[in-house]
Amino acid sequence: MHSTLSFSQATTVPTTNYAFHSQSPINLRFCGLRREAFGISILTRSSSGRVRLSTRGRSKRTSASTGNNGTPPKSFDYDLIIIGAGVGGHGAALHAVEKGLKTAIIEGDVVGGTCVNRGCVPSKALLAVSGRMRELQSEHHMKALGLQVSAAGYDRQGVADHANNLASKIRSNLTNSMKALGVDILTGFGTIVGPQKVKYGKVGFTDNVVTAKDIIIATGSVPFVPKGIEVDGKTVITSDHALKLEFVPDWIAIVGSGYIGLEFSDVYTALGSEVTFIEALDQLMPGFDPEISKLAQRVLINPRKIDYHTGVFATKITPARDGKPVIVELTDAKTKEHKDTLEVDAALIATGRAPFTYGLGLENINVVTQRGFVPVDERMRVIDANGNLVPHLYCIGDANGKMMLAHAASAQGISVVEQVTGRDHVLNHLSVPAACFTHPEISMVGLTEPQAREKAEKEGFEISVAKTSFKANTKALAENEGEGLAKLIYRPDNGEILGVHIFGLHAADLIHEASNAVALGTRIQDIRFAVHAHPTLSEVLDELFKSAKVEREALEALKVG
């Protein structure tokens, strides 16, 4: 999910006197999760520049001593307290320890948050199954490869167990990685009781109060359920329930056609369900670049057992009971008049997510949420009701609403740790990629074409668009997966990359060359000289950048430089 982003010029943050250790782990991350979450060995670089391998079992020293987890100031219990142990909190905690901070993380539910337990991780397990089922079920695809496969089937409980086991494994590894580095995991719900002071505890038990020089709020989000919809967790469900895959309905209505709705439509149709999308806006997939949405609809929606209603609200949904089906009442989004009534076996509410900020004690520090989101500036510093910065308090991830993606939360957390240890850092959210793991996948970074044209008109410059097809890529054709498109939106006057959108095989992996280019400020006239292995899917982007037409002045500037 995306929200409108605003940026301002950097200002200097006062430096502080923290001891930095000469030996620090090289940061290697997987989709927002630290490498340690997968139980993989850690590469460390010594002060001499040499790289050595250490495992959790053998390593007796990390960047902050496992035994004492840094040295806290005498006046505080910790250098840093993080409220919430999801991907954002985990990333911030591990980076803080690397920087020598004594760190604690408070978690009232389970380590891993939404991503690991009810989001990214288990959903990818289900999508892995749906992808294989689609291949095995496609007689045309198999025949084109010279393969003969008997009828494909699946065991529902086995599929559900795969998703649950993966979540359990990653959750356990996250917990162990923090314990191994000496992060104190404090169990209970965290509440801010005053400046640099937090209480935590479980219901029915005495609260504990701890202090810290700096505090990060990383409490994440929960599924958003509109008024009039009754969720029973069985026949009317959210993504939290759907990931358990307790049953596969013959016909399911999915309310919302964004990332969550699209991915679940991929899963359910692969497992045999018929799907009906209910979308409040006039078109499906409203958050994507319009050209990508149009192609994705032709490939992901039209050939499958999917129909849809656009421009309507699901104003009332009643769960199945007493032998009756799930009742979905549709209302015209413009006239507000009743339009239709559906009777289905199940309904999935995929209308986005809402920040989980209730009970944080924000009123104790004069902070008022905006639609539940904690207001922050470009450095994730919390802003109070008077528009002033709250000293030593930060908020990252879904709770601030800047960009509701797990890896964005992790990046924000790392950015905050950089700041509190004396190095100013502002995250460029336009460089953060996003992906939808359908088959084929959709990925993007930066602006859509309409957004870019609006920006160009406002700021007085021209934009150009370049495109390449997967049909011209040798590797895609070898896989018999030539359906796909890559699109580049850029400034021809200076070669600046404004946005890249990909629909096709492994789009979620391909987008990172573009997102890194945006993050590093690399221009088209530079990146077009990069060499790509042949034959690989990466050549889709190679051809994309080479096809862009940059004005002669920009090329001449490159020669001069």
Automatic annotation (TrEMBL):
What is catalyzed by this enzyme? N(6)-[(R)-dihydrolipoyl]-L-lysyl-[protein] + NAD(+) = N(6)-[(R)-lipoyl]-L-lysyl-[protein] + NADH + H(+)
Extract the PROSITE patterns matched here.
Answer: PYRIDINE_REDOX_1
Name any cofactors this protein relies on. Answer: FAD
Where it sits in the cell: the answer is: Plastid, Chloroplast stroma
Q: Which GO terms describe its molecular function?
A: dihydrolipoyl dehydrogenase (NADH) activity; flavin adenine dinucleotide binding
Which branch of life, at top level? Eukaryota
Q: Which SUPFAM superfamilies match?
A: FAD/NAD(P)-binding domain, FAD/NAD-linked reductases, dimerisation (C-terminal) domain
Q: Give the Enzyme Commission number.
A: 1.8.1.4
Q: Where is the FAD/NAD(P)-binding domain?
A: 78-413
What GO terms in the biological process aspect are recorded for it? Answer: 2-oxoglutarate metabolic process; response to arsenic-containing substance
Q: Which UniProt keywords apply?
A: Chloroplast, Disulfide bond, FAD, Flavoprotein, NAD, Nucleotide-binding, Oxidoreductase, Plastid, Redox-active center, Transit peptide
Asked if NAD is a keyword of the record, the answer is yes
GO cellular component, as recorded: chloroplast stroma; mitochondrion; oxoglutarate dehydrogenase complex
Q: Where is the composition biased (Polar residues)?
A: 62-71
Primary localization: plastid
| Coiled-coil intervals | none
Q: How is the cofactor bound?
A: Binds 1 FAD per subunit.
- What InterPro entries has UniProt attached to this entry? Class-I_Pyr_Nuc-Dis_Oxidored, FAD/NAD-bd_sf, FAD/NAD-binding_dom, FAD/NAD-linked_Rdtase_dimer_sf, Pyr_nuc-diS_OxRdtase, Pyr_nucl-diS_OxRdtase_dimer, Pyr_OxRdtase_I_AS
Q: What is the active site of this protein?
A: 534
- Presence of keyword Plastid: yes
What role is this protein assigned?
Answer: Lipoamide dehydrogenase is a component of the plastidial pyruvate dehydrogenase complex (PDC).
By sequence similarity, the record places it as follows: Belongs to the class-I pyridine nucleotide-disulfide oxidoreductase family.
Q: How does this polypeptide assemble, per the annotation? A: Homodimer. Part of the plastidial pyruvate dehydrogenase complex (PDC) containing multiple copies of three enzymatic components: pyruvate dehydrogenase (E1), dihydrolipoamide acetyltransferase (E2) and lipoamide dehydrogenase (E3).
The name this protein goes by in its record: dihydrolipoyl dehydrogenase
Organism of derivation: Gossypium raimondii
